[in-house]
UniProtKB/TrEMBL annotation:
GO terms for cellular component: plasma membrane. It is a peripheral membrane protein. The gene is nuoI. This is NADH-quinone oxidoreductase subunit I. HAMAP family: NDH1_NuoI (MF_01351). Belongs to the complex I 23 kDa subunit family. [4Fe-4S] cluster 2 binds at C84, C120, C123, C126. The lineage of its organism: Bacteria, Pseudomonadati, Bacteroidota, Bacteroidia, Marinilabiliales. It is found in: Cell membrane. It comes from Aquipluma nitroreducens. InterPro entries: 4Fe4S_Fe-S-bd, 4Fe4S_Fe_S_CS, NADH_quinone_OxRdtase_chainI.
Length: 191
C-alpha cells in the first residue's frame, strides 16, 4: 500500500526468540538505565523546603521602589502600562497635597496601582520603560492560589517597605549597560 509519509514503519510479525519471550534482557536493560540515573546529580529539588537560588536578573514579581528618603518614586506617568504587551498594569493618578511631600517624590503619584499577575508575562518592559526608576522585577516569585482575585497585586503588595532594612535590593539588575541604556536620550521614554 502507498504510504502518505515516509515516517511509517513496517511492523514485523516474526516470532519472538526464547530470550525475548522471557523478557529478562529487556528488564536488565531497563534496570541498568534506572541505576545509571540513580547516581546522577538530581535535576529536581524538594521545593519549598529547598529553595533554588535565582539569577540576579531573574524576572519575578515586581516591586515599586521608594527613594532614599522613603518616598514613593512612581509618578503615575503610565509609561509602564503603555509599554506592557499584556495590558496587565492599571493605575489611577492623584495630585500630591501640601504636607504629603514626605510620602511621594513627585507632584503626581499613583493612588491605585495594580498588576494582574495572571496576565503578566514577566517580560520586563515596564521596568525598561519607567523613567523614574520606580518599578523593577525581582527574584521573588508570585505565590500560587486557587482564586483569581489574589493575583491582582495592589500597592500593598508592590510598594517596598519604608524600613531601609526591609527594602528590596535591585542593585544586581542595575548593571552598567542598563544604566547607560536608561540615560540614552535616543529612546523616547528617557527624554
Ligand atoms: S513584566 Fe511585562 S507583562 Fe508584566 S507587567 Fe511588566 S510589561 Fe507587563
Ligand atoms: S513608568 Fe514608572 S513612574 Fe511611570 S507609572 Fe510606571 S512605575 Fe510609575
Amino acid at each position: 500500500m502507498q504510504t502518505l509519509t515516509n515516517r511509517s514503519k513496517m511492523v514485523s510479525n516474526k516470532k519472538m526468540t526464547f530470550m525475548e519471550r522471557i523478557y529478562l534482557p529487556a528488564i536488565f536493560k531497563g534496570m541498568s538505565i534506572t541505576l545509571k540515573h540513580f547516581f546522577k546529580k538530581k535535576a529536581t529539588i524538594s521545593y519549598p523546603e529547598q529553595i533554588r537560588e535565582f539569577s540576579k536578573v531573574y524576572r519575578g514579581r515586581h516591586v515599586l521602589k521608594r527613594d532614599e528618603e522613603g518616598r514613593e518614586r512612581c509618578t503615575a506617568c503610565g509609561l509602564c502600562a503603555v509599554a506592557c504587551p499584556a495590558e496587565a498594569i492599571t493605575m489611577i493618578a492623584a495630585e500630591r497635597k501640601p504636607g504629603e511631600e514626605h510620602l511621594y517624590r513627585e507632584e503626581k503619584y499613583a493612588e491605585v496601582y495594580e498588576i494582574n499577575m495572571l496576565r503578566c508575562i514577566f517580560c520586563g518592559d515596564c521596568e525598561e520603560a519607567c523613567p523614574k526608576e520606580a518599578i523593577f522585577l525581582t527574584d521573588r516569585i508570585v505565590k500560587s492560589d486557587y482564586e483569581r482575585l489574589p493575583f491582582v497585586y495592589g500597592k500593598s503588595l508592590l510598594v517596598e517597605p519604608v524600613d531601609p532594612n526591609l527594602r528590596i535590593d535591585i542593585s544586581g539588575r542595575q548593571t552598567e549597560n542598563v544604566l547607560q541604556f536608561k540615560q540614552n536620550k535616543r529612546f523616547a521614554h528617557n527624554r
